[in-house]
Amino acid sequence: MLCALQLLLVAAFSQNLVKKDVQDYFKNLPFKMSPIKAPEFGAKIFNIKNYGAVGDGHTLNTTAFAKAIDACTKAGGGRVIVPAGSFVTGPIEMKSNVNLQVERGGMILFTRDLTQYPIIRTSPTSTSFTTASPIYGFDLKNIAITGDGIIDGSGEAWRPMKKSKYTASEWKAAVASGGVVSKDGELWWPTKEAMEGEAYLKKLKEEKPKATAADYLPARDFLRPYMVMFSNCQNVLIDGITLRNSPKFVFYPTRCTNLIIRNATIFNEWNAQNGDGIDISACKNVLIYNTTVSVGDDGICMKSSRGAKDDPAAFQLENVVIEDCKVYRGHGGFVIGSNTDGGMRNISVRNCNFIGTDIGIRVKSNTGRGGVVKDIYINDIAMADIKDEAILFDTYYEDMPAGKIADSIKVTAADKVPEFRDFHITNVVVTGAETAIFINALPNMYTHNIDFNNITISAKKGVVANYSRDIKFNNVNIMPAKGDVFTLTNSSNYILNDVYPQAGKTFIKGGANTGNILIRGKNADEANKQVVTEAKAK
Fold first, then answer.
1. CA dihedral 217, 223, 228, 231 (to 10 degrees)
2. How far apart are CA 437 and CA 472, in angstroms?
3. How confident is the model at residue 308 (pLDDT cuts 50, 70, 90)?
4. For the chain, first and last CA: distance in Å?
5. In what order do the strands lie in the sheet containing 187-189?
6. Does residue 391 carry a pLDDT above 50?
7. What average pLDDT does the segment 424-442 reach?
8. CA distances from residue 56 to 59, 384, 399, 432 in whole angstroms, order as listed
């Protein structure tokens, strides 16, 4: 069986070799979505060297970048060229109709001097402030970052370090370099201001609700910026570029429409604190393909939060296609959450490989930041060496411990309770995981209407589910090294069709309030003999 599984895995990995046109990614989608067209730019070229830039890895080129981008947008658009060389700079503010193109051999290296990063508003109309991202833009149209070069965010100048994630020599070197260590000795901060920033901001908001940019300045080092952040932009392209070493998330578009990410490499070290790769937040019409991610937190992640003026019936994130991508490290390969209160629907993930991630398919949220997530289609996924769960649905993420929400509580949309439903997961092969599938939902909001089709998972543990209903398994082979194939608690209305029992193991261990489990297909008789139920199970 293992040899056959490995052959399936190799075949799955090989699918990425098929050459596709951009329009192919919009064919045969399970929901209606119009094809996205990449933005086009004028023929004019603006080389940053012509505006005073020096690529010696030392000279600060912030002014040269600003001049080149201003000239480009005022001329109606074109390409701002970063040629071969290492160009140190402070934050770059993008403008409409600009393609920032980093050529092969070229590098944009953001300065480690944090005083070069101003405090700016979180949006042009916001009363809140944050630290300017290395690359950022608000309310823009037709923008791109392209080329075969590298953009480095100098994240080590910003990020705290958890002692548990580093070797003794690495930790010693960090402490010797400067910075400060927390009282418990477990966390190193690059500066004293970064360590004290959270407490400072809490006090500031309590004592001065109408704070200014100057008031936020002492917390600059704590307010780690996203490396590339675009807000409320239309027609955005990321193509070919390598984005690496971010202070926080690498690429964070929020409330953007018509976004294409392709042929890109997204990299953070595995121990980079909050080092997410791609975080798509409340965007519409998104295509991500042929992109490789290896990071210190979530790989390719969907987020959605609702603003005060948003239609409560609308879905803030919808129409997303992810295909032909690889995630080598991270807390999750494909991830949803934890912010889902804006609602999500119509997401297709096809032909992707997750290797060595903590979790393969990770769906997470909790009360206080949850909403409806539905119509999610995940197909043709190959995974290997997954540290924890191959597939996870969890509504107790982080600060919401299990059992805090009681059965008797009646919740409303205002409580921001996560609801995961109408997921369709098909053609998945996994070699190596701690747990095959894990579902842990709220007693007043079950995870429901999930279909698993053509699934083969080799893991230490099988399927574990709590507070789930209306779950279908069709042609599924779960091979746990130990324990039961299915452990179900507070779960009902399961259909198991052609699901393989395992010799010498309990097929289903039915816990309290579990019932209406239908076993059918060619393995039904054998599987039925391996069912063990508790007194309250039916």
1. -80
2. 13
3. confident
4. 33
5. 161-162, 187-189, 180-181
6. yes
7. 98
8. 6, 42, 47, 46
